[in-house]
């Protein structure tokens, strides 16, 4: 039997042919065979040509997540080849003396809905869609075969998963439980990570290269790290020679781990202050100037309709930063909202600078490291964007 298929409307095959890994529901003319969520389907154009294979989504704008633009089985052998290619890439691009990195980056590695992070011998996986759930055992087996981890721990949570009719699931899948906390290294930096309860898989591995940028700028400066989480930027600034670091976060557990990370790196207690506060309220209450400010907020826009409010939030938080920066000060500012483009964030920064009455220049655009590859046509996968900005006067 031919199996279930998705037929596209005439003229709507362009994005798939161009490399986009999603088929949107508006492009679908017909679905044959009544496939359920996560079922593997062939995708055909209006002339009947197979242009890919993927898995069906339960509902929403995305009808199919494509695993291949070939007519091939999505089986154990297929998954093993994709995981092997991902592992080989990381062996090439991950810096030396780095024991934690993104191992599998969903669509960027040809495995939609699958995320896996390596933490010094343990792998933390996320199976975020029904399609990813269907190949989870194949992914686990490939990781065990190719990476020989001490354990595989699962953190499959979130609205995308629930939208596919799946409940959240966390816990050990294979091997040993990861320690709590789990120590990792990034070059000369040392961090303790809570992979069981921390945000995402425990640590913001995508900010590794931006932590390096902040560390190189920190020497002799007063650094304000807002939305500081477990101290990644704060520690980098401390090791980089910051005169003083203030790290602000609203999470008590995150701040506790940030303090531990500061001590873990042998940094003097008098050079840091950890502040438990809402970032916006902190800016309203505290007027202390700074030479370097880091803004790494959570996603302000989790849905497309949230974008206008999110842009107001980015404009305001950046305005507050510009008000406090000294002349020739630096701002490292980011957004992890995939609905907010780099251009939109730049406009928010421009408006914030104008409202604060500051002249600024963009020094460089920022993003994740090369262990977070993105499919060339999948702009939605380019979620982390940022700018390094310098205040002129």
Structure description:
This protein is an alpha/beta fold. The protein has three domains: about 60 residues, Roll (Archaeosine Trna-guanine Transglycosylase, Chain: A, domain 4); about 100 residues, RNA methyltransferase domain (HRMD) like (Transcription Regulator spoIIAA); about 190 residues, 3-Layer(aba) Sandwich (Rossmann fold), CATH 3.40.50.150. Helix content is about 30%, strand content about 30%. The chain has eleven helices and 20 strands. A seven-stranded mixed sheet has the order 16-15-14-17-18-20-19, with helices on both faces. Helix 7 links the parallel strand 14 and strand 15. Helix 2 packs across helix 4, helix 6 runs parallel beside helix 7 and helix 10 packs across helix 11.
Fold topology:
Blueprint: E1 5-8, H1 14-17, E2 22-24, E3 28-32, E4 40-44, E5 50-56, E6 62-68, H2 76-93, E7 100-105, E8 114-119, E9 122-127, H3 130-134, H4 136-147, E10 151-156, H5 159-163, E11 169-175, E12 182-186, E13 189-193, H6 208-217, E14 222-226, H7 232-239, E15 244-249, H8 252-264, E16 272-276, H9 279-285, E17 290-295, H10 307-324, E18 325-335, H11 342-356, E19 360-366, E20 385-391
Parallel strand pairs: 1-4, 9-10, 14-15, 14-17, 15-16, 17-18
Antiparallel strand pairs: 1-3, 2-6, 4-5, 5-6, 7-8, 8-9, 10-11, 12-13, 18-20, 19-20
């Amino acid at each position: 039997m031919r199996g279930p298929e998705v037929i596209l409307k005439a003229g709507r095959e362009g994005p798939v042919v161009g490399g986009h890994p999603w088929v949107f529901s508006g492009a679908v003319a017909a679905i044959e065979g009544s496939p359920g969520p996560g079922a593997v389907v062939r995708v055909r154009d209006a002339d009947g040509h197979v242009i890919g294979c993927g898995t069906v989504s339960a509902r929403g704008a995305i009808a199919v997540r494509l695993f291949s633009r070939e007519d091939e089985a999505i089986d154990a052998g297929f998954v093993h080849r994709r995981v092997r290619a991902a592992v080989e890439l990381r062996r090439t691009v991950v810096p030396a003396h780095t024991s934690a990195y993104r191992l599998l980056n969903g669509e960027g590695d040809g495995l939609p809905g699958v995320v896996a992070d390596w933490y010094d011998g343990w792998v933390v996986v996320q199976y975020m869609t029904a399609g990813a759930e269907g190949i989870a055992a194949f992914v686990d087996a490939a990781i065990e075969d190719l990476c020989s981890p001490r354990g595989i721990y699962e953190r499959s949570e979130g609205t995308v998963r629930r939208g596919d009719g799946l409940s959240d699931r966390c816990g050990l899948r294979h091997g040993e439980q990861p320690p709590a906390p789990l120590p990792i290294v990034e070059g000369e930096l040392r961090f303790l990570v809570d992979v069981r309860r921390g945000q995402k898989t425990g640590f913001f591995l995508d900010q590794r290269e931006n932590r390096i940028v902040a560390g190189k700028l920190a020497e002799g400066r007063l650094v304000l790290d807002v939305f500081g989480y477990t101290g990644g930027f704060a520690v980098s600034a401390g090791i980089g020679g910051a005169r003083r670091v203030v790290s602000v976060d609203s999470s008590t557990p995150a701040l506790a781990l940030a303090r531990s990370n500061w001590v873990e790196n042998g940094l003097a207690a008098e050079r840091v202050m950890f502040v438990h506060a809402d970032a916006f309220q902190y800016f309203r209450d505290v007027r202390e100037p700074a030479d370097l400010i880091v803004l790494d907020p959570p996603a302000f826009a989790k849905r497309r309709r949230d974008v206008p409010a999110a842009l107001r939030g980015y404009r305001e938080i950046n305005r507050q930063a510009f008000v406090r920066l000294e002349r020739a000060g630096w701002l490292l500012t980011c957004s992890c909202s995939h609905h907010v483009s780099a251009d939109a964030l730049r406009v928010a920064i421009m408006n914030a600078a104008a409202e604060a009455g500051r002249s600024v220049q963009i020094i460089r655009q920022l993003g994740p490291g090369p262990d977070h590859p993105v499919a060339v046509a999948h702009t939605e996968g380019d979620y982390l964007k940022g700018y390094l900005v310098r205040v002129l006067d």
